[in-house]
Request: fold
Amino acid sequence: MKDGFIKVAACTPEIQVADVDFNVDKIISQLEKCREEGVKVAVFPELCITGYTCQDLFFQNALLDKAMEGVVKIAKTTADSDMLVAVGVPVRANGKLYNCAAVIQDGEVRAFIPKTHLPNYNEFYEARHFAPYRGECAAIDLRKYGQPDFMPPMEQTVFVCDEIPELVVGFELCEDLWVADPVSNYLAKAGATLICNLSASDEVIGKDSYRRQLVSNQSARLVAGYVYCSAGDGESTQDMVFSGHNIIAENGSILAESRLFENGITISEIDFKKLAFERRKISTYPASAEWDYSSKDSDFLDKDNISRERFDLEMGETALTRKFAKTPFIPSNQAERNERCHLILQMQSHGLMKRIAHTHSKTVVIGISGGLDSTLALLVCVMAMDLLKRPHTDIVAVTMPCFGTTKRTRSNAEILCDALGVTFREVDISKAVLQHFEDIGHDYNDHSVVFENGQARERTKVLMNIANQVSGMVVGTGDLSELALGWATYNGDHMSMYGVNASIPKTLVRHIVQYYSDTCTSDTLRDVLYDILDTPVSPELLPTDESGTEMTQKTEDLVGPYELHDFFLYYGIRWGFEPSKVKRLAKYAFEGDYSDEVIDKWLKTFYRRFFSQQFKRSCLPDGAKIGSVTLSPRGDWRMPSDAVAKLWLEDIDK
Reply:
């Protein structure tokens, strides 16, 4: 359970209709496997102890009695386990029969959760046998079935973990999810962060994709984990076929899914600290329901007649099996990645189009270096002018070579501008920078921060003054990763009149440019974009080698790999994970790529720079939010510039 991860399982055992002994043995066998895998919450299908398709056999007392014996037998096998288990079983209460989830832990049946919505249409005929739950309660006497000391209640209940308060488990059964107002809505309002669905959903053409969307969307709407478990092989095929479709979702993301028509166990880990963080952050998410704490018992009742019971879990580290992408900002699927890159370019260009139109700018001015960031910004400028139906010559692209400019980047900048048909200007700033060094008494051979920032600020001055010349606005090129690290010269490349890349992480910049190059129709443009993609990332502020072809300064050698920093940014800032948790996930995701020492080094660099460089983000130029992570002081991120990083740095060494 370290870091909030809980291992959950959706289990579909082989069954035989009305053969309780056979079914119970198969359930117990899968529970043993779950225990071996460290599962803490295991869910089995609806009515799996008897089989969902028993039809009028549900009226037979022999079957119902045997089902209760089976529940108690399963419970007894969990006596040495803290796993919370739910199995489907028919339950007699209040003179009626209910379709229930039996919730089991520590050797006993803790509660029976009745189904609220009974389908009685098309192939379903549940109302013939079962009564819908309408808030009535009952105590189920299991003494004659072998559970002597406790009569579990039949009522809607959520289970609250004492050791992990973020884990609150609620249960609904099949149709309870498919209706207009699902039961899980009320469970979530009562505090449930994990919804377990015991289902017997028959398979028809197209239903699997709808079922997947339904579970994914409900988990997103509730900001919850969702374990959906369905009946499979062994149910009667008299009129239906069951596929055993199991799904585990977390806040809209499918973590694990079974293949259709394969009985078995589907396992993953849900991050409940992550869910709790997101719920706290969303101001419109309802607070958990008020509980009547006047009760002296362990269970309480809220206004929606949902009781609350506590349960315990033994603490320990959860072995991770779910995948964490090395590049969380980038979809792994090629088609989805292309679609996202296209959408981002549209968002960037429409944002810039609005700003150009509003300011009545005759031109836009951009510094073009031959690097990735300025290339993306230039492509966005071109698209904005196309939207405005204005010529590309209204874009003034300025290259400003100095001591660190290589022949390759200088050449690529010119070829790129020519291929796009923009106005190209070259302003060599070497003399101006040397004069500035002389004016302030700085030795040219002193390649300190003064040497570097003097060039960066000179370039910004040139761009601003050219913009005044041509009645234009300066478009910034800096990206989100640079803003997170403060890898920008204050009042140098840090400043512009509109920053189109401000919400784009460095790892994603590369893919957007790649997408543009792959889809453009000009061979010349494609070739130069490919060469820019192959060029190392560098500010080019230190002198080149004597030939002028080799860079002596590479950004990732100085601040660390951007794929690591973007990983840290996503999990540490977007999701608020503790640095020790970010470190754990980074070592898990990048195993074999970076040593533990390297990850520790750059993680400390990330937090140290993130805190110390906030003052640059506090006065950022305007720029549209693109993704779920942005550091605009007017948008998603408000942080004091003098906050201390000590707590975060100490946590890394835990």
